[in-house]
Design brief:
Layout lengths: L8 H14 L13 E2 L5 E2 L14 E4 L3 H8 L2 H11 L4 E5 L2 H7 L7 E2 L15 E2 L4 E4 L2 E4 L4 H14 L1 H10 L15 H13 L1 H17 L3
Parallel strand pairs: 3-4, 4-8, 5-6
Antiparallel strand pairs: 1-2, 7-8
Helix pairs in contact: 1-5, 2-4, 2-8, 5-6
Length: about 220
């Protein structure tokens, strides 16, 4: 599980909780051992660096967090590390804007993938096939949409690794049976207006995300 400054903590701890119950060996890989500050100010201390990270991982996972994501997309060392580990990983995965980092590393070219609704449209710029589904699996690539999709992602990956019975048992343990208090799965003028307002508040970030995606496309010769 790759960790970096300004990632969204929920992206990490949702799947991490599931993997921990599964009994997985979890490596939190940062570029050094300095704790990284997450979106809500809670630091996460890496357990490994690229130098100590095993090269035969079952799963490579990248969380999201748009400001930190943009920095990762523009960091050649990050992209080189992910590309190196991905060569041997059974599953290459992400939640939310983590898929933009995978795409910038060339790891989603020709693969169907999803991301947060606000930035999913950048995936095709880097050669991925955009999907607006909450969870997408294309061969050994598994990507989740926005923040809470990390729990869905974790359960589906647990099923891939240990079977449906194990995944269902974990779902029971964490009491995961979501009933959202407000509906956001229907097309409506209200929802469209809310999204438009969200986009206007994120104009600076959106511009930088697009620039990072375009720079990645040039590196990948797309």
């Amino acid at each position: 599980m790759f960790v970096y400054p300004e990632m969204v903590l929920q992206h990490l701890v949702g799947p991490q909780t599931i993997f921990n119950i599964l009994g997985a060996d979890i490596h939190l890989v940062g570029f050094d051992m300095t704790p990284v500050i997450t979106d809500i100010g809670i630091p996460i201390r890496p357990t490994d660096t690229p130098a100590t990270c095993p090269q035969d991982l079952d799963v490579l996972f990248v969380p999201g967090g748009l400001k930190g994501t943009i920095a990762c997309m523009n960091n050649p060392a990050v992209l080189a590390f992910l590309t190196s580990v991905a060569r041997h990983a059974r599953f290459i995965t992400s939640v939310c804007t983590g898929s933009l980092v995978l795409a910038a590393a060339g790891l989603l070219e020709g693969y169907k993938a999803t991301s947060h609704w606000g930035v999913a449209g950048l995936l095709p710029v880097m050669g991925a096939i955009e999907s607006r589904e909450r969870l997408v699996q294309d061969r050994n690539r598994i990507t989740g949409a926005g923040v809470t999709a990390g729990l869905d992602f974790g359960l589906i990956l647990a099923m891939q690794l240990r079977g449906q019975q194990a995944a269902e048992h974990i779902q029971l343990i964490i009491d995961y049976a979501p009933q959202a208090p407000f509906r956001h799965d229907v097309a409506s003028e209200t929802l469209a207006a809310q999204k438009a307002t969200g986009r206007s508040h994120a104009a600076w970030i959106d511009g930088n995300a697009l620039q990072a995606a375009q720079a990645a496309a040039r590196r990948l010769k797309l």
